[in-house]
Design goal:
The complex is a heterotrimer.
Chain A (H helix, E strand, L loop, with lengths): L1 H28 L6 H4 L19 H24 L1 H28 L8
Helix pairs in contact in A: 3-4
Chain B lengths: L2 H23 L3 H21 L3 H26 L13 H21 L4 H4 L9 H4 L4 H11 L1 H23 L12 H9 L1
Chain C lengths: L2 H36 L10 E3 L2 E3 L5 H12 L10 H18 L9 E2 L15 E2 L11 H20 L3 H32 L4 H10 L3 H4 L1 H14 L11 H4 L9 H26 L8 E2 L2 E4 L2 E4 L2 H29 L5 H29 L1
Antiparallel strand pairs in C: 1-2, 3-4, 5-6, 6-7
The chains are: A mainly alpha, B mainly alpha, C mainly alpha.
Chain lengths: ~120, ~190, ~375
């Protein structure tokens, strides 16, 4: 346990320390000279108001949902691939059925235009 | 358990509880999603402490990499949320949820301290035993799932299909998308000659 | 506490940090020089160290160093209307997981401490030090776990900057990265089935005993190369930062070192993806003709000290890494940018079904043989 995860813990601590050092150096050393013009959001010189409120394409949402489903499939495939030879033909058939059902889902998503961007 | 394992457990547990509290009390949705990320990472640490190696990495892949991303996507659609004005006195719902929280915390503490008969007979698995060391690994997981749980596993694919169908229904309605018919080569060549 | 474990871990971590930070500087230089050569320009030659009235520019190698120093003293700009906490957290979330993911990459063969200065006996004894920071049960999945968290960094950078370009860039980045994450994960499943493990060190061992993965899984290699390029948001998949339309995307409101942290994260990802390609497809540290006990090539045998063999293995790994990086650079500078809908279509319509097909065919072939 300790021999496995202690090195990882040290690695995480070192990575955090490195990133934080660079970050804090930037905060400490970087000069600050804010003017009202500079403070405006970068645009063509006009105020953009509250920029976080814009209308976004629903396709992003559908992409995220389909991604969720297929990433879960991927995790099952990872676990299955690690034991592939031991599980044998039975495991292969099991996984083919699983992939077929999700393949149908993917075809359905295409037919419904889940990944279409143009109007 | 060694001192290192115990202190690891307490650090992860403290981070998990603190970030969970921030998640539910934060008004800004994207900050709440961010502290949910911290909570999930701390939970993965707790799983590692319980020998659930594969579960820990699943936690990171699915929850940290997928669910939090899904939340952030959705929050981006909502846009900034106006600050809710603070209510004069706590509402009934708030009081009710606090009472529920106290009851659940009490019950869990009671069980964890060993007073509950349900947990009395629980077997623990020392790490030194070979099967116990392998208990939470990938091989053990997939042997259990793909040999013992075939039907539930196949049903998962149906469940995932239903999720996609539902999302597409909400977003796209009853439309069927048809690709524009491809123009024949002849027409294209006429166009090019113009 | 085990002192050897602690010291060897610290040395390995220091090696990784030095390696990726040096690579960062050198890669920046190589990329600029290569781009200049491909586009028939001169590239950076001005920045240099003045010595005796002579500007020592080292063909532009001083330029990345000058950039690093400059970015430290640049104005640390935080947009006043931004969510300051998230704006500060985003670069850290983007870079820390990438560095941590290097923990599972084996950089060379295992070192037997007792036999460092002699030819390795058939049954080595004593302390073994794998040239890999952490050997964990889930192996390569750790890289995916860390890579997935990187999406959050780009997304909250875009959201918290209070800028429309940033928001669009962040959303594009997140959408693209999640699309390719699936294809990326599934492309490797064929390899896992072939090696029948998730442990990277076992995958390398399998390739040394049999044949390099690229010859048995060429489709997986191409899918992984494409997918990782998209995951890193490099040209031709760089619509999230498309300078010409959304002026940098989610990094638009970042300046100085914070911007540099994002860019550093991208170079770390590049090195990480190339390292994964080397260990999964190109046999890791394996050099044909070099065994654990010395050179054994076409009847020419020369026993070598174990320590020397390990050092050569490390060098072989680095050479392979550099070659893969060179390939990535050539792709980066010869292919023009794709459109966003093309990128999405490529992932879902072509790469994902192809990856599933690859898994199916691999499974049937392995079972039938």
């Amino acid at each position: 346990m300790v021999a496995t995860y202690l090195p990882l813990l040290i690695m995480i601590l070192v990575a955090v320390a490195l990133a934080l050092t660079l970050f804090l150096l930037a905060v400490v050393l970087g000069n600050k000279n804010m003017t009202p013009e500079k403070a405006m959001p970068y645009e063509s010189g006009q105020s953009t108001g509250d920029a976080r409120h814009i209308r976004l394409s629903l396709t992003f949402f559908l992409t995220a949902i389909v991604f969720t489903v297929f990433d879960i499939e991927a995790v099952f495939l990872f676990a299955w691939a690690a034991m592939f030879r031991e599980l044998g033909w039975f495991g292969l058939m099991e996984m083919v059925a699983f992939m077929l059902i999700l393949g149908v889902t993917l075809v359905y998503a295409f037919r419904k235009g889940a990944f279409e961007w143009e109007k | 358990m060694s001192i290192a394992a115990i202190s690891f457990f307490f650090v992860c547990g403290a981070v998990a509880i603190a970030s969970a509290l921030i998640t539910v009390t934060q008004n800004n949705p994207i900050r709440a999603a961010f502290s949910l990320l911290a909570h999930i990472i701390a939970l993965a640490g707790l799983f590692i402490g319980l020998q659930g190696h594969f579960l820990a990495v699943i936690q990171l892949i699915i929850y940290a990499g997928v669910v939090v991303v899904l939340f952030i996507f959705t929050i981006m659609y909502i846009g900034p949320v106006p600050k809710p004005e603070s209510a004069g006195r706590p509402s009934f719902a708030k009081l009710f949820s606090i009472a529920g929280m106290v009851v659940v915390t009490g019950a869990v503490t009671y069980a964890a301290l060993g007073y509950s008969p349900a947990l009395k007979g629980l077997n623990t698995c020392p790490e030194a035993v070979a099967e116990c060391g392998q208990f939470g690994g990938v091989e053990a997981f997939s042997a259990a799932l793909f040999r013992g749980g075939v039907v539930p596993f196949e049903l998962i694919s149906i469940l995932l299909t239903v999720a996609v169908v539902g999302a597409i229904m909400v977003a796209r309605g009853r439309l069927i998308y048809r690709e524009k018919p491809r123009r024949k080569k002849q027409e294209l060549s006429i166009e090019n000659n113009r | 506490m085990d002192m050897i474990l602690l010291v060897s871990t610290l040395i390995k971590i220091a090696f990784i940090l030095v390696l990726i930070l040096t690579f960062n500087v050198v890669l920046l230089w190589v990329e600029r020089r290569l781009a200049a050569m491909i586009q028939d320009r001169i590239g950076p030659v001005r920045a240099g160290i003045p010595i005796f009235g002579y500007n020592l520019a080292l063909k532009g190698l001083v330029q990345p160093v000058a950039d690093a120093i400059k970015s430290l003293w640049k104005e640390d700009f935080v947009p006043p209307n931004a969510d300051k906490f998230l704006h500060a957290m985003a670069p850290l979330v983007a870079v820390i997981p990438v560095i941590v993911a290097f923990a599972v990459i084996p950089f060379g063969s295992s070192l037997y401490l007792n036999h460092a200065f002699e030819v390795l006996p058939p049954e080595p004894t004593g302390r073994v030090i794998p040239l890999q920071v952490a050997t964990m049960n889930f192996g390569i999945l750790f890289v995916f776990a860390m890579g997935g968290t990187g999406v959050v960094g780009s997304a909250i950078a875009g959201y918290s900057s209070n800028n429309k370009f940033s928001l669009v860039g962040g959303l594009r980045a997140a959408g693209q990265m999640v699309s390719y994450e699936v294809a990326l994960g599934l492309s490797l499943v064929g390899c896992f089935m072939l090696y029948n493990t998730l442990l990277i060190e076992d995958m390398v061992r399998w390739q040394i005993e049999n044949v390099w993965g690229i010859f048995l899984q060429p489709i997986a290699f191409i899918l992984f190369l494409t997918g990782s390029t998209a995951e890193m948001k490099r040209v031709p998949f760089d619509v999230p930062e498309a300078e010409a339309e959304i002026v940098g995307g989610f990094v638009l409101e970042y300046s100085g070192m914070k911007f540099a942290i994002f860019k550093m994260g991208e170079y770390f990802e590049l090195v990480l993806a190339s390292a994964v390609i080397v260990v999964l497809f190109l046999g890791g540290h394996h050099l044909p003709g070099l065994t654990d006990r010395g050179i054994d090539f076409l009847g020419f045998a020369q026993p070598l000290w174990h320590g020397a063999v390990v050092a050569i293995h490390l060098g072989v790994f680095l050479v392979k890494l550099v070659l893969v990086l060179w390939l990535q650079f050539m792709i980066r500078w010869t292919i023009p940018r794709f459109r966003y809908d093309q990128i999405m279509k490529l992932s879902w319509r072509y790469m994902l079904p192809l990856a599933l097909l690859n898994i199916f065919v691999t499974g049937v072939v392995i079972m039938a043989l």
